[in-house]
């Protein structure tokens, strides 16, 4: 295949995934996978593995950037992470036993709706007012929601980042910056676990494509995270909304092309 085509596809895939991760804690799999499958003819299982691997460093550098700016609730993130990991495995097992691809467009639809939501109704909670929940209630709800998010991720194979953003801002009272920072911290470990399992089962992908996707996703995630932490809440909400709406439309377009 022409090297310039590979470079162009991985650049735009990494840009979309990086912006989605750095701005909104969105999983890179939602953007990279359909592009690699559609334009490079990559086998779907391998494409998801590449996307998850690209997510690891992008989420890690985003989490570090948000944490450095005081926008990461690491204690609560660890609670949610434990629940997500356990129930992701449970959901994966259930999906292997019960055929169910009916929710295939779930994460794309949620991405589009969340984008509209952040544009029309911004999350204006500040870092100092994380809602009215006490610590024990927040931990209990994090376990419950983490279990649900993990199960859906394992069963459907997508939607984790968007579900976490929705739960953290809509139910746990987080500011948008704190929600994204906490979400990308959790995603660092879930993406690493998913990537290793994909490569162990399906084998290693093309190293050139993998390296380029990881690099471009990391680059754009870092740029987006730096901008997001400096932006005022209303500007950030609009930026996140626009990114999510555009990505939702683009991903839907890729699905029609497949």
UniProtKB/TrEMBL annotation:
GO terms for cellular component: plasma membrane. It is found in: Cell membrane; Membrane. The keyword Disulfide bond does not apply. It comes from the Bacteria. InterPro entries: TM_pro_TauE-like, TSUP/Inactive_protease-like. It is a multi-pass membrane protein. Coiled coil: none annotated. It holds the Pfam family TauE. The chain crosses the membrane at residues 45-66, 78-95, 101-120, 143-172, 178-200, 207-227, 239-257. Keywords: Cell membrane, Membrane, Transmembrane, Transmembrane helix. The keyword Protease does not apply. PANTHER family: MEMBRANE TRANSPORTER PROTEIN MJ0441-RELATED, MEMBRANE TRANSPORTER PROTEIN YJNA-RELATED. Belongs to the 4-toluene sulfonate uptake permease (TSUP) (TC 2.A.102) family. This is Probable membrane transporter protein.
